[in-house]
Amino acid sequence: MLQYQSGNLYAEQQMKSYIHSSLIHRMTMLDTTRNFDVSSKLRNEMHAVFKGKHAHLLHEAMIPFYEKYIHLDSEIFDHSHISLELEISDLMKIDPYIGQWFENYDLLDVVGNWWLEETESHYNIIFHLMKCVLNGGYHNDWEKLADDFRFRLLSEVECGTPWSREVYAIMNGICMIWKSSADESEKMQLLDKMKGYWDFLKYLYSVMFRQLIGCNYRNFAQVANMIHFRSAYHPYAHLFYAVFVERADEFVKGKNDQKKIEEHLNKIASVMESTPKSDALDALCNLLFPEELSEYLAKHRPKDARQLREEIACLREELGETTRQMNQQVQAMADTMKAMLEASVPIEEIEQELLMLDYNEAIGVFKQLNTLLLNNKAWMNNAGSIRSKIYQLKNQSKGGDTYNYASGATHYDGRRTLNIKQKDESNLLE
Fold it and tell me: N or C: which end of the chain has fewer CB within 10 A?
């Protein structure tokens, strides 16, 4: 039950009379007067009441209008002149009791009676209403509602319309935001972003839920074409692309669909290559689709230039570390063989140890030994023969290369080839 501030009985009666005989009377006449000065003066007076101690009286007087608004009553929304609609929507923003009042209604029942037509104003109405009641302190079980609206949306596949699906998609999104751990301010920002980008997000919802939402298209190839066609969508095309590629086979219904889908995907891939990617919607979309989207992005999002440069830098660092470790091993082996020779181990045994290595390892150690044993007569007398036998190892290997080291060098190459190739995601479905 709504709780209001009490005040002087006489003053309340006077205010109540003023509200009903003047404010509400003039409000009912807005669509007939169509006078901006009249509506502006009325708005200012009503704002003043809502800011004062008698706000509850104006709230009670406005309830019949609010009820028509939340039920999308044609008496409010089907006028050619929208003064009344605008006045109600404006007052809902500042009514301190709007959220508490809305808790009297079963949200699932209210939403289930909404029937959206192909007009932008209708989805804007939903966002506006929910923002007003949420700002007004409206509470609910958002976890349960998110699941309920998701179930209703999934149930719309067979019998729903693009516009009924749009209702449930929007409500599912709002509930997903409100059940998150973000603070109230962040949630409002996310809600505003969802509303502002709904024209794109409805297509993302379409491919996520495998049904056409908020559009008159006949198939998903047309949806993909719209993503390519509208330049405003291009910075966020990676989100749509990742999901669409993952689920493309599910959208093929006729014999011509496969080719059309492949063509549109190639166009979107081309757009992504030429348009800087924006991550402005990434956080919101990961919140709306927490289970699927990050997985799909990881699998199918083409890497941009920055990511490729970072990957190359990482590989270069890893390769450098590997080379450093190998050089240390080569040096250690050469030092050990030098010690063996100085300990009077036969040169033939040193030779056999070298020939047990593969060509690249053997030639690396040999060259290090050459540097270390320049003054060893036994080594120098046998070095030419040992080198020839090592070169024979090269012929036994597949495509080994000769590595030329400067005298005293400690560099070693283990026949490792770094092949960096950019994957062409546009041909994924071919």
Answer: N
